[in-house]
């Protein structure tokens, strides 16, 4: 099978209820994964965190994406920047974790950089000929923000973030994500392919089986119908569900008050917004949670998640007690998803597995799979992470 021949995907390209699913080799082939790396991961806007992670000048956090350690830091000018976490002298990693600093210093030979990435001190270089310090600032990446979220892109000639997310504001502006505070961030690791987890996040028909101990019953409610919003030309789709109560807490548990500014579809229930390639926003009546499922290999993902709440919810006298209900629900559901996606990886790794068919409730999966194939088959030249970033 030639995974890079458009004819291989003729069955996937049919209308949803006539189409076949992706071949199993698209999940298990190292060559396909490498093309995803070059044509998707290193060319696409990726959510890397929230602006409230770094509220003050000098605040920073370090994140690892696709083998590259990155520094996200707020400058004295209040501007956010992303840098490759490698000294321009001999490549030593300089920062770890998160914190605050007034300059970025290399622990090996003492080169020092300003918060804007420009060089401040080049130690032991007095005899080096034709050294222009302006040419040896930190390597920067494209960074932009949207409603409090931080996105980075490895491609220096990428499309603007506003074009990548074209049309998404129409569905999200009444939540005021940018005014929410992030709490309760956590990481998980699962043995599965990143597309398997993405597909699970794009449909609700698995809920009765996979989440029967937690949230599976919502499918049986009359008002719990799901519908898909196709976000094209923006790189997103939305799984919309109608409900009179928040889905972010389990039945019987108390939640926070409804966000008073909600209007339109946002006021009718939850919207699960899938931003390609691997970020989901759970926009509910009272809060917003997000998860970014970062590929760390063909069969490894790191699941990064956090809850975001309006300020008025966090100023209540009973905030701590109510917050526990949200933090109880989410780990249970994530672990249920993790178990089933690992089982699907086992099945798709079987060399005798064959493509299947899509159900009516899997439009989001079909949209996502076609988006991946569009990118993988594109004519973009293969991009490699620089040696300094690796």
Short structural description:
This protein has helices at residues 25-28, 30-41, 161-164, 169-172, 194-200, 207-210, 311-314, 319-348, 363-376, and strands at residues 46-50, 59-65, 68-74, 80-84, 98-100, 104-105, 112-113, 119-121, 140-146, 149-153, 181-190, 226-230, 236-241, 271-275, 279-283, 288-295, 301-309. It is of the alpha+beta class. The strands form three sheets. It has a seven-stranded antiparallel sheet, with no helix packed on it.
Q: What would you say this structure looks like, in words?
A:
With 390 residues, the protein is of the alpha+beta class. The chain folds into 2 domains: 6-43 and 168-376, Naphthalene 1,2-dioxygenase Alpha Subunit, Chain A, domain 1 (Alpha-Beta Complex), CATH 3.90.380.10; 46-162, Rieske [2Fe-2S] iron-sulphur domain (Rieske Iron-sulfur Protein, 3-layer Sandwich), CATH 2.102.10.10. The protein is built from 9 helices and 17 strands. It has helices spanning 25-28, 30-41, 161-164, 169-172, 194-200, 207-210, 311-314, 319-348, 363-376; strands at 46-50, 59-65, 68-74, 80-84, 98-100, 104-105, 112-113, 119-121, 140-146, 149-153, 181-190, 226-230, 236-241, 271-275, 279-283, 288-295, 301-309. A 7-stranded antiparallel sheet has the order 1-10-9-4-3-2-5, with no helix packed on it. α5 runs antiparallel to α9. It is globular and about 70 Å long.
């Amino acid at each position: 099978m030639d995974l890079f021949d458009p004819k291989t995907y003729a069955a996937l390209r049919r209308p949803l209820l006539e189409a076949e699913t992706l071949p199993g080799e698209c999940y298990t082939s190292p060559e396909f994964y490498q093309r995803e790396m070059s044509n998707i991961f290193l060319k696409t806007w990726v959510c890397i965190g929230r602006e409230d992670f770094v509220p003050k000048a000098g605040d920073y956090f370090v994140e690892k994406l696709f083998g590259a350690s990155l520094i996200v830091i707020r400058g004295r000018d209040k501007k956010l920047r992303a840098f490759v976490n490698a000294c321009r002298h001999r490549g030593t990693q300089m920062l770890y974790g998160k914190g605050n600093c007034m300059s970025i210093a290399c622990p090996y030979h003492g080169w020092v950089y300003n918060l804007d990435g420009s060089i401040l001190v080049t130690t032991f270089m007095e005899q080096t000929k034709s050294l222009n310090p302006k040419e040896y600032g930190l390597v920067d990446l494209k960074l932009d923000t949207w409603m409090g979220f931080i996105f980075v892109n490895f491609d220096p000639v990428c499309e603007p973030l506003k074009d990548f997310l074209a049309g998404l504001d129409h569905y999200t502006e009444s939540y005021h994500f940018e005014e929410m505070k992030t709490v309760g961030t956590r990481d998980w690791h699962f043995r599965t392919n990143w597309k398997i987890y993405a597909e699970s996040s794009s449909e609700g028909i698995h809920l009765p089986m996979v989440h029967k101990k937690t949230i599976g019953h919502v499918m049986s409610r009359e008002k719990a119908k799901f519908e898909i919003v196709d976000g094209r030309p923006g790189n997103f789709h939305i799984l919309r569900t109608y409900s009179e109560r928040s889905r972010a807490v389990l039945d019987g548990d108390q939640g926070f008050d409804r966000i008073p500014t909600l209007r339109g579809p946002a006021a009718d229930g939850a919207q699960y917004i899938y931003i390609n390639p691997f970020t989901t926003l759970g926009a509910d009546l009272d809060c917003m949670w997000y998860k970014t499922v970062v590929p760390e290999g063909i069969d490894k993902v790191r699941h990064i998640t956090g809850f975001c709440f309006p300020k008025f919810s966090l100023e209540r006298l009973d905030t701590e007690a109510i917050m526990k209900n949200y933090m109880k629900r989410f780990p249970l559901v994530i672990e249920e998803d993790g178990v089933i996606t690992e089982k699907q990886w086992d099945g798709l790794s079987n060399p005798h597995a064959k493509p299947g068919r899509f159900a009516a409730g899997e439009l989001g999966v079909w949209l996502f799979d076609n988006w991946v194939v569009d990118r993988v088959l594109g004519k973009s030249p293969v991009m490699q992470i620089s040696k300094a970033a690796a």
